[in-house]
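Summary of Year 1 activities. Much of the first year was spent building the evaluation harness for sequence design. The harness presents a backbone, in tokenized form, and records the residue chosen at every position. We chose the following record to illustrate the format because it has been used consistently in internal testing since the harness was completed.
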């Protein structure tokens, strides 16, 4: 595999891996509404703070999130709104079509 192309594929895979977790998708969707403090994200996803922080780190490490400090609070936001185009592309029509295909393969 060509090294530049290979590294692009690896980075894309890292992004898709970060988005593959339902909790992380929920966090990203919550941040669609704008910058949020961890103290707002924790009750929204109904998980304890250390677990939420782990998910935020994964999203931050692949470049999907950024944060800024305000006093002792960390405020998270999406680095590039184009990520929502990718998420939105997997709409209910595509999910239904893929689900139907999986069911047909089983039967």
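For this record, the design step produced the sequence shown next.
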């Amino acid at each position: 595999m060509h090294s530049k192309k290979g590294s692009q594929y690896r980075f894309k895979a890292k992004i898709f891996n970060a988005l593959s977790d339902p909790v992380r998708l929920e966090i990203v969707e919550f941040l669609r509404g704008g910058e949020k403090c961890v103290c707002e994200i924790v009750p929204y996803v109904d998980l304890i703070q250390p677990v939420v922080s782990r998910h935020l780190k994964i999203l931050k490490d692949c470049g999907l999130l950024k944060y800024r400090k305000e006093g002792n609070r960390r405020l998270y936001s999406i680095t590039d709104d184009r990520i929502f185009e990718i998420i939105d592309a997997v709409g209910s029509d595509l999910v239904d079509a893929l689900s139907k295909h999986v069911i047909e393969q089983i039967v």
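Strands lie at 36-37, 65-70, 73-78. Quantitative recovery figures across the full test set are reported in Table 2.
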